[in-house]
Every structure is written in structure tokens, then in C-alpha cells.
Design a protein that fits this description.
This protein is an alpha/beta fold. It is 39% helix and 17% strand. The chain has a domain of 214 residues: EAL domain (TIM Barrel, Alpha-Beta Barrel). An 8-stranded mixed beta barrel has the order 1-2-4-5-6-7-8-9, surrounded by 6 helices. The longest helix has 18 residues. It is globular. The two termini are 29 Å apart.
């Protein structure tokens, strides 16, 4: 396979092949027995958010968290987004579930204002994932704006991550929709970049702040010339459009160091920390240092996890 052209930063054909493996589980594969359970979970507060740190690779600071949904099912234990989201989509509960996540995210982000730490309060971000269905739901922009205003969050404190597929589903309304969300006070990121068919040249016309590079391309950096070329190309064009780049799923010090060399701005993954419950995530924000940057006294990076979830668990 050939390297991507710098003019588009569109990953080669492998991206399409990885699409099916990296997207959420298909609606057809969901367990219908979970539908009434999910309705009860929304009523009885069985859902919870865990938070995974996002690290500034240059400074090593913990600058953001990504909110990840968990469901404490009374009979099946802890369920992950891949178990929950297809049920919500198939049952018409996607809007209610999204509203629950939004409400809890703004509450958590508002609580961070009282935390000390190396990173100033106004610089901390909390990212939440938004589904394609939720994005185009009538009243979504107004719901987001009202939640941000009620929590008195500074602009950009709450970030919304949308996939390339969701952007495509928004169609010709995408520029207006994303401009309205920016006006509502949120940051915007393209999630899992490289698992669909868009290019940064196209996305550059939309008001995004960040590109989150799919872990498919992160895993080979430093050992695969093609992956290095892809990452370097994405970083170059993203910076040209005023976007910063976040590498997803970083698991080794070698990957982190090479990403630094390639100019990547931020990263998250089990190298730094797995998803944490709220109290532990706040401890990481207060501690502030996510890793020791490459070359600093020749030290390997310390992991900042506190009772990590298993590194084999999905996000």
C-alpha cells in the first residue's frame, strides 16, 4: 500500500478495511432483552461515566479527559459502549441516553473548577462522544447550549467528539450545525479519524478544533514506515488548518516518543492511564503530570494510573 498524499492526508485503503472492526457494534447484533433493562437503568441511575486522561505530549500535562459510558447491569456486570449503544439506537433511547451523558459531563466539568493542579481550570477539557443519530436530532444544539450555560462552563471546556460517518450523515447541514455548536460554547473533534472515507482537506472547511487519530495507525508508529508517513501527513495538514492532533490508544513508550517526534500534540491510552472513576480521575487532574517527556534525563515515563482497569478492556 502506498503512503497517503500530503495534500489530502487521507489514509489509504486499509482505513476502509478497518472501519468495520473499529465502529460500534451493529444494531442488528444487539440483545433485545436489554431494551427494558436500559429503560430501567436510565431511571434507576445504573449508568456511570469513567474518564480517561488526555496528555499534552510536549509538556506531559494532563489537559483533558474523555468520558466513557459504563452500565452497571445487575445481572451481567459492567457493560461497555459497544454493548449499550446498539440497544439505545434500536430502541429509540439514543436521545435519552445522550441527554444523560451530557448532563453528567457538564456536572463533572463544573466540579473541576475547585481542583488545584498544574493545569489552570480554564484549560481543562472534558470530551464526550456524540452519535450520528443524536447529532441530527431536532433541538440537540439548544440542549447542549442550555446545559453549558446552566453549568457556567467556560467556552471549550466541554468538547464533543463526532465520527466522520456522523459528519457525512449531517450532509449539507454540517457547516451550519457545527457552527451553531461552536457558538453554544463547545469544542469539536473528529473522532477515530481514518476509519471512514473523508479527508482533512474536506474537514478543514468545518469549525473543528482537533482530530483524534484512530489507534489503527498509532500502533505501528516507530516500527512501520507507512504508519509514520500517515501520522506525519495528518499532523502536517491538521496544523495547516489550525487543528491539533490527538493520538488514540497509545500503549508503549516507543509509540509516545515517536508521536512526539512526528509533531503529534496530544495522546491518550493505557501508556498513561486507563479509564478511571470520577474520584480517581480528579486525582490525576490534580497530580497533573501524565508522563515524563522523551529525553528528559533519559527517564522512562511513569504510568499515572490508580487501580487501572485491565489494559485489554475496550474503551
Amino acid at each position: 500500500m502506498s503512503a497517503p498524499a500530503p495534500s489530502s492526508a487521507e489514509p489509504p485503503g486499509r482505513a476502509a478495511a478497518s472501519h468495520a472492526a473499529t465502529r460500534p457494534a451493529d444494531v442488528d447484533a444487539f440483545d433485545p432483552d436489554l431494551i427494558p433493562d436500559l429503560e430501567l437503568a436510565l431511571e434507576h441511575d445504573e449508568l456511570v461515566l469513567h474518564y480517561q486522561p488526555e496528555i499534552d505530549l510536549a509538556s506531559g500535562a494532563v489537559v483533558a479527559m474523555e468520558a466513557l459510558l459504563r452500565w452497571r447491569h445487575p445481572g451481567r456486570g459492567l457493560l461497555w459502549p459497544r454493548d449499550v449503544l446498539p440497544v439505545a439506537a434500536a430502541s429509540g433511547l439514543e436521545g435519552r441516553l445522550g441527554a444523560w451523558v451530557l448532563r453528567h459531563c457538564v456536572t463533572e466539568a463544573a466540579a473541576w473548577r475547585t481542583l488545584p493542579g498544574r493545569v489552570a481550570d480554564e484549560q481543562r477539557q472534558l470530551w464526550a462522544n456524540v452519535s450520528a443519530g443524536q447529532l441530527v436530532e431536532p433541538g440537540f444544539v439548544e440542549e447542549v447550549g442550555a446545559a453549558v450555560a446552566a453549568a457556567e462552563l467556560a467556552p471549550g471546556t466541554l468538547g464533543l467528539e463526532v465520527t466522520e460517518e456522523a459528519i457525512e450523515r449531517a450532509g449539507s447541514d454540517a457547516p451550519r450545525l457545527f457552527a451553531a455548536l461552536r457558538d453554544a460554547g463547545v469544542a469539536l473533534a473528529v473522532d477515530d479519524f481514518g476509519t471512514w472515507y473523508s479527508s482533512l482537506a474536506t474537514l478543514g472547511d468545518l469549525p473543528f478544533d482537533a482530530v483524534k487519530l484512530d489507534r489503527t495507525f498509532v500502533r505501528g508508529v516507530g516500527s512501520d514506515l507507512e504508519d509514520d508517513t500517515i501520522v506525519a501527513s495528518v499532523v502536517k495538514l491538521a496544523h495547516a488548518h489550525g487543528l491539533y492532533v490527538v493520538a488514540e490508544g497509545v500503549e508503549s513508550w516507543a509509540e509516545g516518543a515517536r508521536l512526539c517526534e512526528l509533531g503529534c500534540d496530544r495522546a491518550h491510552g493505557y501508556l498513561f492511564s486507563g479509564p478511571q472513576e470520577s474520584a480517581r480521575a480528579r486525582m490525576l487532574l490534580v497530580r497533573g503530570l501524565g508522563w515524563t517527556t522523551p529525553g528528559l534525563k533519559g527517564m522512562p515515563n511513569p504510568r499515572t494510573t490508580v487501580d487501572q482497569e485491565s489494559a485489554t478492556s475496550p474503551g
